[in-house]
Hints:
The chain is an alpha/beta fold. It is built from eleven helices and twelve strands. 2'-monophosphoadenosine-5'-diphosphate binds next to helix 6.
Amino acid sequence: MKIFAIFGNPIKHSKSPIIHKLFANQLNIIQQYKKIYVPIDKFNNIINNFFKNGGYGANITIPFKKKAYNICDFLTDRGIKSGVVNTLKIIKNNKILGDNTDGIGLLKDLQKIKFIHKNSNILLLGAGGAAKGIIYSIINFGCKITIVNRTYKNSYNLLKFFNNKKNISIIKIEDIDNIINNKKINYDLIINATSSSIKGEVPKISSKIIHSNIFCYDLFYSINITPFLEWCLYHGAKKISDGIGMLIEQAAYSFFLWHGVMPNTELILKQFKKKYFF
Ligand code: ATR
Protein backbone atom coordinates (compact mmCIF):
# COMPACT_ATOMS: atom_id res chain seq x y z
CA MET A 1 0.00 0.00 0.00
CA LYS A 2 1.36 3.42 -0.93
CA ILE A 3 1.74 5.90 1.90
CA PHE A 4 1.05 9.63 1.59
CA ALA A 5 0.88 12.53 4.02
CA ILE A 6 0.33 16.25 4.22
CA PHE A 7 2.93 18.24 6.16
CA GLY A 8 2.24 21.64 7.67
CA ASN A 9 2.04 23.86 10.71
CA PRO A 10 -0.78 24.20 11.67
CA ILE A 11 -2.23 21.03 10.18
CA LYS A 12 -5.19 20.03 12.37
CA HIS A 13 -7.80 21.59 10.11
CA SER A 14 -6.47 20.25 6.81
CA LYS A 15 -9.15 18.67 4.65
CA SER A 16 -6.63 16.95 2.36
CA PRO A 17 -6.91 13.47 3.98
CA ILE A 18 -10.69 13.52 3.45
CA ILE A 19 -10.36 14.67 -0.16
CA HIS A 20 -7.72 12.06 -1.01
CA LYS A 21 -9.85 9.36 0.62
CA LEU A 22 -12.77 10.37 -1.59
CA PHE A 23 -10.49 10.27 -4.68
CA ALA A 24 -9.07 6.85 -3.73
CA ASN A 25 -12.58 5.44 -3.14
CA GLN A 26 -13.78 6.80 -6.46
CA LEU A 27 -10.91 5.14 -8.34
CA ASN A 28 -10.66 1.96 -6.25
CA ILE A 29 -7.14 2.73 -5.10
CA ILE A 30 -5.94 1.51 -1.72
CA GLN A 31 -3.68 4.02 -0.01
CA GLN A 32 -2.94 5.60 3.32
CA TYR A 33 -2.92 9.41 3.67
CA LYS A 34 -2.16 11.06 7.00
CA LYS A 35 -1.60 14.51 8.49
CA ILE A 36 1.81 15.30 9.92
CA TYR A 37 2.45 18.30 12.16
CA VAL A 38 5.92 19.72 11.61
CA PRO A 39 7.68 22.02 14.12
CA ILE A 40 8.94 25.07 12.23
CA ASP A 41 12.64 24.09 12.25
CA LYS A 42 12.16 20.37 11.63
CA PHE A 43 10.83 20.24 8.08
CA ASN A 44 13.88 18.74 6.36
CA ASN A 45 14.38 16.02 9.01
CA ILE A 46 10.75 14.99 9.10
CA ILE A 47 10.20 14.88 5.35
CA ASN A 48 13.45 12.97 4.73
CA ASN A 49 12.50 10.40 7.39
CA PHE A 50 9.07 10.02 5.86
CA PHE A 51 10.54 9.12 2.48
CA LYS A 52 13.27 6.92 4.02
CA ASN A 53 10.55 4.98 5.83
CA GLY A 54 8.58 4.17 2.71
CA GLY A 55 6.53 7.34 2.09
CA TYR A 56 5.58 7.61 -1.58
CA GLY A 57 4.15 11.10 -1.92
CA ALA A 58 3.52 14.23 0.11
CA ASN A 59 1.52 17.41 0.09
CA ILE A 60 3.14 20.43 1.65
CA THR A 61 1.23 23.32 3.10
CA ILE A 62 1.89 26.54 5.03
CA PRO A 63 4.63 27.50 5.84
CA PHE A 64 6.88 24.91 4.16
CA LYS A 65 6.29 25.25 0.41
CA LYS A 66 9.54 27.12 -0.18
CA LYS A 67 11.51 24.68 1.98
CA ALA A 68 9.95 21.82 0.03
CA TYR A 69 11.08 23.45 -3.21
CA ASN A 70 14.63 23.57 -1.86
CA ILE A 71 14.84 19.86 -1.03
CA CYS A 72 13.72 18.64 -4.48
CA ASP A 73 16.15 16.76 -6.74
CA PHE A 74 13.90 17.37 -9.74
CA LEU A 75 11.09 19.81 -10.42
CA THR A 76 8.25 19.91 -12.91
CA ASP A 77 8.08 22.97 -15.14
CA ARG A 78 5.27 24.34 -12.94
CA GLY A 79 7.44 23.77 -9.88
CA ILE A 80 10.40 25.61 -11.39
CA LYS A 81 8.32 28.55 -12.59
CA SER A 82 6.44 28.94 -9.30
CA GLY A 83 9.42 28.82 -6.93
CA VAL A 84 7.32 26.94 -4.35
CA VAL A 85 5.93 23.38 -4.38
CA ASN A 86 2.97 21.71 -2.69
CA THR A 87 3.45 18.16 -4.02
CA LEU A 88 6.35 15.74 -3.70
CA LYS A 89 6.82 12.28 -5.13
CA ILE A 90 9.55 9.67 -4.81
CA ILE A 91 10.96 8.69 -8.19
CA LYS A 92 13.84 6.45 -9.38
CA ASN A 93 16.82 6.05 -7.01
CA ASN A 94 14.88 7.62 -4.14
CA LYS A 95 15.06 11.05 -5.72
CA ILE A 96 12.40 13.63 -4.86
CA LEU A 97 10.30 15.24 -7.59
CA GLY A 98 8.46 18.48 -6.74
CA ASP A 99 5.42 19.98 -8.42
CA ASN A 100 3.16 22.94 -7.84
CA THR A 101 -0.51 22.11 -8.35
CA ASP A 102 -1.96 25.20 -6.63
CA GLY A 103 -1.83 27.43 -9.72
CA ILE A 104 -3.27 24.89 -12.13
CA GLY A 105 -5.88 23.93 -9.49
CA LEU A 106 -6.98 27.54 -9.16
CA LEU A 107 -7.07 28.05 -12.92
CA LYS A 108 -9.16 24.91 -13.41
CA ASP A 109 -11.69 26.03 -10.80
CA LEU A 110 -11.87 29.58 -12.20
CA GLN A 111 -12.55 28.11 -15.64
CA LYS A 112 -15.20 25.76 -14.31
CA ILE A 113 -17.12 28.54 -12.59
CA LYS A 114 -16.54 30.83 -15.61
CA PHE A 115 -14.71 33.54 -13.64
CA ILE A 116 -11.79 33.80 -16.05
CA HIS A 117 -10.96 34.11 -19.74
CA LYS A 118 -7.67 34.47 -21.57
CA ASN A 119 -7.76 38.26 -21.50
CA SER A 120 -8.90 38.74 -17.93
CA ASN A 121 -7.43 41.73 -16.17
CA ILE A 122 -6.79 40.44 -12.66
CA LEU A 123 -6.12 42.25 -9.41
CA LEU A 124 -4.21 39.98 -7.05
CA LEU A 125 -4.31 40.87 -3.36
CA GLY A 126 -1.27 39.58 -1.49
CA ALA A 127 2.37 38.89 -2.23
CA GLY A 128 3.22 35.95 0.02
CA GLY A 129 3.70 32.26 -0.71
CA ALA A 130 0.07 31.71 -1.70
CA ALA A 131 0.26 34.48 -4.32
CA LYS A 132 3.60 33.22 -5.61
CA GLY A 133 2.21 29.70 -6.11
CA ILE A 134 -0.61 30.79 -8.42
CA ILE A 135 0.90 33.55 -10.57
CA TYR A 136 2.65 31.37 -13.15
CA SER A 137 -0.42 29.36 -14.18
CA ILE A 138 -2.59 32.46 -14.51
CA ILE A 139 -0.02 34.37 -16.59
CA ASN A 140 0.68 31.32 -18.70
CA PHE A 141 -3.04 31.13 -19.48
CA GLY A 142 -2.78 34.63 -20.97
CA CYS A 143 -4.13 36.94 -18.26
CA LYS A 144 -2.65 40.16 -16.94
CA ILE A 145 -2.04 40.46 -13.21
CA THR A 146 -1.66 43.55 -11.07
CA ILE A 147 -0.32 42.77 -7.61
CA VAL A 148 -1.32 44.95 -4.70
CA ASN A 149 -0.13 44.20 -1.19
CA ARG A 150 -0.01 45.78 2.26
CA THR A 151 3.81 45.78 2.10
CA TYR A 152 4.97 47.15 -1.24
CA LYS A 153 8.43 45.61 -0.98
CA ASN A 154 6.93 42.12 -1.03
CA SER A 155 5.07 42.93 -4.27
CA TYR A 156 8.32 44.21 -5.71
CA ASN A 157 10.13 40.99 -4.78
CA LEU A 158 7.44 38.94 -6.51
CA LEU A 159 7.68 41.10 -9.62
CA LYS A 160 11.43 40.56 -9.66
CA PHE A 161 11.03 36.80 -9.21
CA PHE A 162 8.69 36.48 -12.19
CA ASN A 163 10.52 39.02 -14.32
CA ASN A 164 7.54 39.24 -16.68
CA LYS A 165 7.02 42.92 -17.28
CA LYS A 166 4.50 42.33 -20.03
CA ASN A 167 1.90 40.59 -17.90
CA ILE A 168 2.66 41.51 -14.30
CA SER A 169 2.59 44.92 -12.71
CA ILE A 170 2.51 46.16 -9.14
CA ILE A 171 0.83 49.11 -7.53
CA LYS A 172 0.91 50.61 -4.07
CA ILE A 173 -2.19 49.91 -2.04
CA GLU A 174 -2.63 53.63 -1.29
CA ASP A 175 -2.51 54.53 -5.00
CA ILE A 176 -5.31 52.28 -6.15
CA ASP A 177 -8.06 54.90 -5.76
CA ASN A 178 -6.24 57.39 -8.01
CA ILE A 179 -5.31 54.73 -10.54
CA ILE A 180 -8.91 53.58 -10.91
CA ASN A 181 -10.20 57.18 -11.09
CA ASN A 182 -7.58 58.54 -13.49
CA LYS A 183 -6.86 55.61 -15.73
CA LYS A 184 -10.42 54.28 -15.61
CA ILE A 185 -9.14 50.76 -15.11
CA ASN A 186 -11.70 48.11 -14.42
CA TYR A 187 -10.50 44.76 -13.15
CA ASP A 188 -12.45 41.68 -14.28
CA LEU A 189 -11.43 39.44 -11.42
CA ILE A 190 -10.03 40.05 -7.99
CA ILE A 191 -8.29 37.21 -6.18
CA ASN A 192 -7.63 37.42 -2.47
CA ALA A 193 -4.38 35.57 -1.80
CA THR A 194 -3.66 37.28 1.52
CA SER A 195 -3.89 35.33 4.74
CA SER A 196 -6.14 38.03 6.25
CA SER A 197 -9.25 35.81 6.25
CA ILE A 198 -7.58 33.38 8.67
CA LYS A 199 -7.65 36.16 11.25
CA GLY A 200 -11.16 37.24 10.28
CA GLU A 201 -9.80 40.41 8.66
CA VAL A 202 -10.14 42.05 5.26
CA PRO A 203 -7.21 43.78 3.49
CA LYS A 204 -7.50 47.54 3.91
CA ILE A 205 -8.07 48.50 0.29
CA SER A 206 -10.31 51.00 -1.48
CA SER A 207 -13.78 49.61 -2.20
CA LYS A 208 -13.56 51.33 -5.62
CA ILE A 209 -12.06 48.08 -6.94
CA ILE A 210 -15.52 46.51 -6.63
CA HIS A 211 -18.16 46.95 -9.34
CA SER A 212 -21.25 44.93 -10.15
CA ASN A 213 -19.58 42.89 -12.92
CA ILE A 214 -16.42 41.94 -11.09
CA PHE A 215 -15.73 38.33 -10.11
CA CYS A 216 -14.39 37.98 -6.58
CA TYR A 217 -12.46 34.88 -5.54
CA ASP A 218 -11.02 34.10 -2.12
CA LEU A 219 -8.36 31.37 -1.92
CA PHE A 220 -9.56 30.89 1.64
CA TYR A 221 -12.70 28.87 2.38
CA SER A 222 -14.93 28.25 5.35
CA ILE A 223 -18.40 26.96 6.17
CA ASN A 224 -19.63 30.56 6.43
CA ILE A 225 -18.91 33.27 3.88
CA THR A 226 -15.33 34.57 4.22
CA PRO A 227 -14.81 38.13 5.55
CA PHE A 228 -13.35 39.21 2.19
CA LEU A 229 -16.29 37.92 0.14
CA GLU A 230 -18.73 39.48 2.58
CA TRP A 231 -16.91 42.80 2.08
CA CYS A 232 -17.14 42.37 -1.72
CA LEU A 233 -20.90 41.73 -1.58
CA TYR A 234 -21.39 44.71 0.73
CA HIS A 235 -19.67 46.96 -1.83
CA GLY A 236 -21.76 45.76 -4.75
CA ALA A 237 -20.16 42.59 -6.13
CA LYS A 238 -22.60 39.98 -7.40
CA LYS A 239 -20.34 37.08 -8.33
CA ILE A 240 -18.26 35.55 -5.58
CA SER A 241 -16.57 32.25 -4.82
CA ASP A 242 -14.41 30.87 -2.07
CA GLY A 243 -11.52 28.46 -2.60
CA ILE A 244 -13.17 25.06 -2.00
CA GLY A 245 -13.14 24.30 -5.72
CA MET A 246 -9.44 25.13 -5.91
CA LEU A 247 -8.75 22.93 -2.90
CA ILE A 248 -10.29 19.94 -4.67
CA GLU A 249 -8.68 20.71 -8.05
CA GLN A 250 -5.15 21.15 -6.70
CA ALA A 251 -5.56 17.88 -4.79
CA ALA A 252 -6.67 16.16 -7.99
CA TYR A 253 -3.50 17.27 -9.81
CA SER A 254 -1.39 15.92 -6.91
CA PHE A 255 -3.34 12.66 -7.12
CA PHE A 256 -2.65 12.54 -10.85
CA LEU A 257 1.09 13.04 -10.31
CA TRP A 258 1.13 10.09 -7.89
CA HIS A 259 -1.26 7.66 -9.57
CA GLY A 260 -1.48 8.75 -13.21
CA VAL A 261 -5.29 8.95 -13.09
CA MET A 262 -7.46 12.02 -12.65
CA PRO A 263 -10.44 11.88 -10.28
CA ASN A 264 -13.83 13.26 -11.36
CA THR A 265 -13.64 16.44 -9.31
CA GLU A 266 -17.23 17.57 -9.91
CA LEU A 267 -18.57 14.49 -8.16
CA ILE A 268 -16.06 14.84 -5.34
CA LEU A 269 -16.91 18.52 -4.83
CA LYS A 270 -20.58 17.58 -4.43
CA GLN A 271 -19.77 14.73 -2.04
CA PHE A 272 -17.38 16.91 -0.07
CA LYS A 273 -19.84 19.80 0.31
CA LYS A 274 -22.66 17.46 1.29
CA LYS A 275 -20.62 15.72 3.93
CA TYR A 276 -18.51 18.51 5.35
CA PHE A 277 -20.24 21.80 4.51
CA PHE A 278 -23.95 21.89 5.21
P1 ATR B 1 1.02 32.74 2.54
O1 ATR B 1 2.05 31.70 2.29
O2 ATR B 1 -0.29 32.22 3.07
O3 ATR B 1 0.83 33.67 1.39
P2 ATR B 1 2.67 34.72 3.81
O4 ATR B 1 3.81 34.40 2.93
O5 ATR B 1 2.89 35.03 5.27
O6 ATR B 1 1.59 33.56 3.80
O7 ATR B 1 1.89 35.95 3.15
C1 ATR B 1 0.71 36.45 3.66
C2 ATR B 1 0.17 37.52 2.73
O8 ATR B 1 -1.05 38.03 3.28
C3 ATR B 1 1.08 38.71 2.58
O9 ATR B 1 0.88 39.28 1.31
C4 ATR B 1 0.58 39.64 3.70
O10 ATR B 1 0.89 40.99 3.50
P3 ATR B 1 2.34 41.57 3.90
O11 ATR B 1 3.26 41.21 2.79
O12 ATR B 1 2.11 43.01 4.04
O13 ATR B 1 2.70 40.90 5.21
C5 ATR B 1 -0.90 39.43 3.54
N1 ATR B 1 -1.68 39.74 4.76
C6 ATR B 1 -1.74 39.04 5.89
N2 ATR B 1 -2.61 39.60 6.76
C7 ATR B 1 -3.10 40.70 6.16
C8 ATR B 1 -4.04 41.71 6.53
N3 ATR B 1 -4.65 41.69 7.71
N4 ATR B 1 -4.31 42.69 5.63
C9 ATR B 1 -3.70 42.71 4.43
N5 ATR B 1 -2.80 41.80 4.02
C10 ATR B 1 -2.51 40.80 4.87
